[in-house]
Amino acid sequence: MLTRLSINNVVLIEKLELEFSKGLTIFSGETGAGKSILLDSLGLILGARAETGLIRHGAEKLCVVGTFELEDKKSPFFQICNENEIEAEDEIIIKRTLTPDGKSKIFLNDQPISLKLLKELGSYLVEIHGQFDNQGLLNPQTHIDVLDSFGGYDKKLLEVQELFKKFKDMQKKLKNAVSSYEKAQADEETLNHYKTELENMKVRQGEEAELNQKRTEMMHAEKLLENLNAAYQALHGQSLAQEIRHAMGAIEKVNRITEGKYQTIADALDSSLVELDEAVAQIESASEDISLNANDINSVEERLFALKALARKHNCTIDELPETLEQISKKLSEIQKNGDEIIELKKEIANIRKDYMQKALELHDLREKAAQNLSSKVGAELAFLNMGKAEFRVGISKFEEQDWHEKGMDLVCFEAKTNAGQPFSALSKIASGGELARFMLALKVNLAKKSGMETLIFDEIDSGIGGKSAEAVGNRLYKLSEDVQVMAVTHSPQVAAFSTTHFKVSKETKGEKTTTSVQKLTAQEKKEEIARMLSGEEITDEARAAAEKLIKPEQKELF
Q: DSSP string covering 17-42, please?
């Protein structure tokens, strides 16, 4: 709960020190006195946006310090502090400063923290409900969140959210896969044609060089044959082999005399004879390979022409045609693979859809139970709030599949009727401003018990309510303050009468200087303030008597 609040140089407040306790704390004062400044100041230490317009005119900086004590040591507040290595145990002190140049500093127990972290931590310290918060009840889109907050089935809700996200992601993946597949299919016939054409050509790596060489040889076939014949005659006609054999015989005789001293010469001559025979055989083979047939050269040139045309078609070289064939085959294989992938994606999506439906139906059942519970509890609260004839219920219906969402398949709508015999209608259609405020309070009371929040602040939620209805609101706030710390800004004397602590906010002008002050009232001062709220500036004895009557004995004893 909030125990102390120190405000320096915020708008009209020069310096202010306030101490708070448990129970129902009321802030009253005339319109424009500065009650909103207190909430703005508190908002600063809870993570609200800091604007330089909040700095009191002429001041060097504003400074707000709030001190809190949390009884619930299992609150997420402490977990977040531990995760960020911030020491926070029994007493929590938050300090925030702002200078005219827009520079802001934030400290938690003297440790600097970021605005983002402050906002996260602040959400576990205080919950503020303004007079316009009830407008959220008019929007059915918020109703499902309110019910889920009350139901407390976060784990199941998270499961549904994760499955829905996965379901949507897989649908998107399927859509992209189908789009790619359809586009690829449009090219499949062309790719198959190219593949067949390339396969039929049976292009080999380096074939172009081979064909060019063969073409050159054919163009010079006569000259090549002439020279090959000359070489053949030179080697064969003069019988070099016979001469080498004679030389080998002579060397053999020498080796016999010298006991093989010159065997290397014999070996060299033997090798020469073998290589000579090989050379003659190759010349004969080369002569046979060279063709003088014009049809052969035409065939080679046609092959080269066909290969060059194919290479131009695929914008590559002849040597790159085998690689092109490989790429086309790969694309065709990918098309088939994409088709298989689409089949698998459809199966996976069907399984995810099944899981989502199961979890969403389980969530629906939990919502049904929470809706019955909330309807019952709000109905009980309405009786306390002088709306005994009003009824409240949480309506739940199921969306069609195209409208399923991350929170399930449910549409939640708060419905009510304020008089017997009327049908249930959407809350926005049947409730007046005062009735809506009490419906909101009935909801907030039950939600507060679930949230574990230790401090609740209500800013003029009783606006538009008077008489017994206002008294009922005050009574409910007082009962609520038995469980949590409750603060309320009000213009209603019936509500103020229930305070356990009462502060009066005043504005005073001296010369050219206007300041806002806050005074903690004694029992007598509280009665006088309630009398003022009843009668206006001129407080009559009748107003004092009415104030005395409004203040219940249990409140009197607290002063």
A: EEE--SSEEEEE--TTSSHHHHHHHH
Answering whether pTM is above 0.85, one says: no
Contact 488, 455 (CB under 8 A): no
pLDDT tier, 471 (very low <50, low <70, confident <90, very high otherwise): confident
Q: Given a cut of 60, is residue 80 above it in pLDDT? A: yes
pLDDT band at 558 (very low <50, low <70, confident <90, very high): very low
Regarding beta strands 127-130 and 455-459, do their DSSP bridges make them parallel or antiparallel, or are they unpaired? parallel
Instruction: Classify burial at 507, counting beta carbons within 10 Å of its beta carbon; exposed 0-12, middle 13-18, buried 19 or more.
Output: middle
Q: Output the DSSP codes for 132-157.
A: TGGGGGG-HHHHHHHHHHHHT-HHHH
Contact 435, 463 (CB under 8 A): no
Q: What's the per-residue H, E or C state across 334-366?
A: HHHHHHHHHHHHHHHHHHHHHHHHHHHHHHHHH
| Burial status of residue 177 (CB atoms within 10 A of its CB: 0-12, 13-18, 19 or more) | middle
Token representation of residue 323: 């690689």
The residues near 513 (Cβ < 8 Å, ≥ 6 apart) are none
The number of angstroms, rounded, from the C-alpha of 260 to the middle of its chain's C-alpha atoms is 95
